Amino acid sequence: MLLDVTLSLLEGFGTTVELFALTLLLALPLGLIICFGSMSRFAPLRWIIKTVVWIVRGSPLLLQVLIIFYGPGLMFGLPLLPRFTAALLAFVINYACYFSEIYRGGIQSVSRGQYEAGQVLGMTKSQIFFKVTLLQVIKRIIPPMGNEWITLVKDTALVRVISVYEIIWMGESYIKKGLIWPLFYTMVFYLLFNGLLTVFFGWLEKKLDYFK
Amino acid sequence: MKTMVKVLALALTLAMALSLAACGGSDTDSDLAYVKDKGTLVVGMTDFAPMDYKAEGSDQWIGFDADMARSFGEHLGVDVEFVEINWDNKAMELETKAIDVVWNGMTLTEEVKKLMSCSEPYCLNGQVVVVPADQAANYQTTESLSALRFAVENGSAGAEQLDALGISYTAMDTQAKALMEVASGASDACVIDLLMAGAMIGEGTSYPDLAYTVQLNSEEYGVGFRVGSDLVETFNSFWKEAYDAGTVMEVAETYGVQESIIEK
Amino acid sequence: MAILEVKHIEKNFGDTQVLSDISFSLEQGQALSIIGSSGSGKTTLLRCLNFLERPDGGNISVNGKVIFDAQDPATQSEAQIRKKRLHFGLVFQNFNLFPQYTALQNVTLARELMAKEHGGESKAQILEAGKALLKQMGLEDRAGHYPHQLSGGQQQRVAIARALAMRPDILCFDEPTSALDPELTGEVLRVIRELAVQKTTMIIVTHEMNFARDVSDQVIFMDGGVIVEQGDPQQVINHPREERTRQFLSRREG
């Protein structure tokens, strides 16, 4: 029994992890693009991006998932995206906005003097970014990133509103068979996974502890 | 800055106008032709024995509704695909064409009839009160219920009955969760479908320590289609044929619901 | 011929004029000190020479060649500026060492990137040169230390080595001891003094009057964005001709 439940929950957890990994894969670079946009010298672009970030960060992710899946059909009679794709899209947009703010904080926390020191030594802009500031930015964004990744793991539970069968859905389906404990058993999976993430981020932090 | 505001306002107005136009125009096409053209009938349902469920260790959906849905698919000459949906979203799922039909022991409430075009009723049902078996003797009348803390599926027929009686309750997202509330002691009682109660409660079932007492009403099950869909008519005539041929009762007996089937 | 010639430099921040008609020249191997109160424009002038700010008017020549002319956009492209600024080195008030690199890596990084881009020196050569520079600064035993493991004075000496590594024609110092505890200024001033002895061409913005008088061949006193007085250090600091210079110097002593 325990084995059966574990296997079926693992199947759901596969979806959870897939959503987690693909969201990171796409939202991490997209967040950087949004971040550069929000710091652009071209005011209209900056304004548009800030508005988008405000909307995305200021409204519940649950609502965004519903809108992206049902919205096209309800408003325009358009065909829908596949459920997982819609969930992924909502998550990527949402998390890219959060990441962009984390990046911005990190980039702005590196002092002007670092750029200027690079400039007077004849470095190009990209050399300064990759050789001087990047590692300092990474060091500073690791703690907020760790928080965000762990939140992301837990947020994946939301996508069951559009019937993406992640682990909580699988756990809940046992209630109909009269088994209540599988729902709570899902917690073990989350805890183990987030435990791994915590260890990973701890290791990263330590790795970059050699400079201040 | 000002022009940006204007552009945004214009874009929003345009989007709203478009969406209204789209809503107005969508009813004219034939739903039957759409489904046949697609070659698949997507059935939205939930795990709800004995209408739709999976046998232990199997991936195949079975149950009275599932088997009849397959038979309807054959009649149309299309494949049938079952999608487990979030019951709260059933109307949205239909309207956006994420599914083609809601077929899952759905009680024909006023709310449901407003949101979709429904078939003629095919099955009788009622809402029953579920309490722990050792207390069942105390709650055999409607009057005795007022002191109980209830759990009930949000927006369900059971919730409608409690509303009518003026009894407050905690809303759950499935009937199964409402049952779990009672089993765990979080609530004193819940209201669920008679059919479900028959399959899931009492000795030899998942909840041996629960029992059902008062039946609050009687009601009917129907199949839901998109508003204005021509599939409703197709379904009604298919059902009549299947009933006359004896198929309906045959399937009903397999799942023990023959008592509830409505005579055609 | 003068190695550096600055003519009629103007600089505005919005409506505020911070530099007005700045002209001076500097001979090869000489040291020039710029003194003046904060807000007098001396740091801005230094930043203009290193193109951290773009002058709004005037021109700058090195070795008789105009490297920047406010009237000529051809001298102002990003690529041009990047090449031209290598005539100058700059040592910052706050060191601005790169925290994730060791002292030696701080010194060699830019030169390695340059070599990778244009060819030339081998990595080993650059490393040797870097070590030699650290030794010159008295820091050969600190090569593997990270900036946060060094004292302020040591960090500033690494910063000087880092600037020297690019072999600038003119080395600029922006108040190199202002961020240091008093007991640490000596070691930095000693290093700069040594560079003066070796005939390094330098421009030093400083508050250390005695140091400016001892080490430089020429002193400029700035106030309100203009050069008030310039000339021999003994004369400007000990016997100023201008009233504003006298006031500034007496305020500092008082």
Write a structural description.
The complex is a heterotrimer of chains A (212), B (264) and C (254). Chain A has helices spanning 2-38, 43-58, 61-76, 83-109, 112-120, 125-155, 167-173, 181-207. With 212 residues, chain A is mainly alpha-helical. Chain A has a single domain (2-109, 144-207), classed as MetI-like (MetI-like fold, Orthogonal Bundle). Chain B has 10 helices and 13 strands. The model of chain B is unreliable at 1-14 and 16-27 (pLDDT under 50). Chain C has a single domain, classed as P-loop containing nucleotide triphosphate hydrolases (Rossmann fold). In chain C, 39% of the residues lie in helices and 24% in strands. In chain C, β7, α6 and β8 (202-205) form a beta-alpha-beta unit. Chain C is globular. The relative contact order of chain C is 0.17. The mean pLDDT of chain C is 93. Chains A and B meet through α2 and α3 of A and α1, α4 and α7 of B.
Which geometry of chain C do the CA atoms define?
A: globular
Question: Superfamily at the CATH H level of the largest domain in chain B?
Answer: Periplasmic binding protein-like II
What is the strand arrangement across the widest sheet of chain C? 6-7-8-3-9-10
Number of DSSP E strands of chain B: 13
In CATH, the topology of the largest domain in chain B is named: D-Maltodextrin-Binding Protein, domain 2
The count of strands of chain C amounts to 10
CATH class of chain C: Alpha Beta
Number of helices of chain C: 9
> N- to C-terminal separation of chain C?
40 Å
| Domain count of chain B | 2
Question: What is the structural class of chain B?
Answer: alpha/beta
How do the helices and strands follow one another from N- to C-terminus of chain C?
A: EEEHEEHEHHHEHEHEEHH
How would you sum up the major sheet of chain C? Answer: 6 strands, mixed
